[in-house]
Design a protein that fits this description.
single chain, Jelly Rolls, alpha+beta, Phage tail protein beta-alpha-beta fold, 305 residues, 18 strands, three-stranded mixed β-sheet
Length: 305
């Protein structure tokens, strides 16, 4: 009997170790790991349906936790820590390159994920907060619930809302993280720069540069910023590399260019429509950048200056 109790405690500890997944990652989780986690959750649900016995379910969760930890062993570690309740992260949503994914959460909040993005969220929110974890870009249409703040956590920024529509963009490898408010009100906290909070009004965008530890605020047309939900891509004072990254995600392609020949200080303003092909978009860029051209070789695209 004592051996059985010890085994149960050991298995429970494995389950609770899921709490560390987001803490030990950089808040940047690749989509392959999340797909594995989604498959593990499906196995857990199937096991729960077949056998309602608590010990059996606990054992299934423990196995899933162990496999998830192995699948996520490539995460880069960081000193940034988040408070995550045990067994809270039970679901994942992934939008692969070339796709946009949508979901309605248990509280009625509608989430749209842009290409190359992922979301971790609980099956049911608790009675105090509604917390989700984002890598990439997501539009959030938050269901009103004044007693339970809705919080989006990323690697460097936490965005809190009560009932509002906003966008958070936090892609791995990109130099800035952005929050854009369409309607309502949000509070943005950035742990690395102390206790100051930023309260955004509608049509405002906050941009944070982790490398410079710098925050900037600007008035924008939020409808255009959130327009990717309907197939539009809008860029305001965007770098060439940011535009190319967005096109690669949307069309699931690789675009090669010589970054050394692109002036880093130059920015572009451009908008692509849902019906525009990748070739259409690249042709527009050649018109905006004098002396540039592009070509396609096999499945790869090359942009030349």
């Amino acid at each position: 009997m004592e051996v059985s109790k010890n085994n149960e405690a050991e298995e429970l500890n494995k389950v609770l170790s899921l709490e560390n997944l987001w803490e030990e990652s950089k808040g940047e989780i690749d989509t392959n790991s999340l797909r594995e986690l989604a498959r593990l959750n499906e196995r857990i649900e199937a096991s729960a349906r077949r056998k309602r016995n608590f010990k059996t379910l606990l054992a299934s969760l423990a196995v899933a936790a162990s496999l998830a930890l192995v699948a996520m062993a490539t995460f880069r570690f960081t000193r940034i820590r988040y408070e995550v309740s045990p067994l809270e992260l039970t679901r994942s949503l992934v939008a692969d390159y070339g796709q946009v994914s949508s979901i309605v959460l248990s509280d009625g909040t509608e989430v749209h994920l842009n290409s190359g993005s992922s979301l971790l969220y609980p099956e049911q929110f608790d009675n105090a907060n509604r917390i989700v974890y984002l890598t990439g870009e997501g539009n959030f249409h938050v269901a009103k619930d004044p007693d339970r703040p809705f919080i989006v956590k990323t690697a460097h920024m936490n965005v809190q809302a009560l009932g509002t529509t906003f966008c958070v963009a936090s892609y791995m490898g990109e130099p800035t993280i952005r929050t854009t408010l369409k309607e309502g009100k949000v509070k943005v906290d950035i742990p690395s720069i102390g206790g100051e909070s930023y309260y955004l009004d509608p049509q405002t965008q906050l941009v944070f540069s982790p490398s410079e530890n710098k925050v900037s605020l600007a008035k924008v047309d939020a409808r255009k910023v959130l327009g990717w939900e309907d197939g539009y891509l809008s860029f305001i004072n965007a770098s060439f590399s940011d535009i190319i990254s967005a096109l690669e995600r949307k069309f699931n392609v690789s675009i090669t260019y010589n970054a050394e020949r692109m002036h880093t200080g130059n920015t572009l303003n451009v908008r692509f429509n849902p019906e525009d092909s990748l070739e259409d978009a690249l042709e527009v860029l050649t018109l905006l950048i004098p002396g540039s051209q592009f070509k396609k070789v096999g499945d790869r695209f090359y942009f030349q200056f």
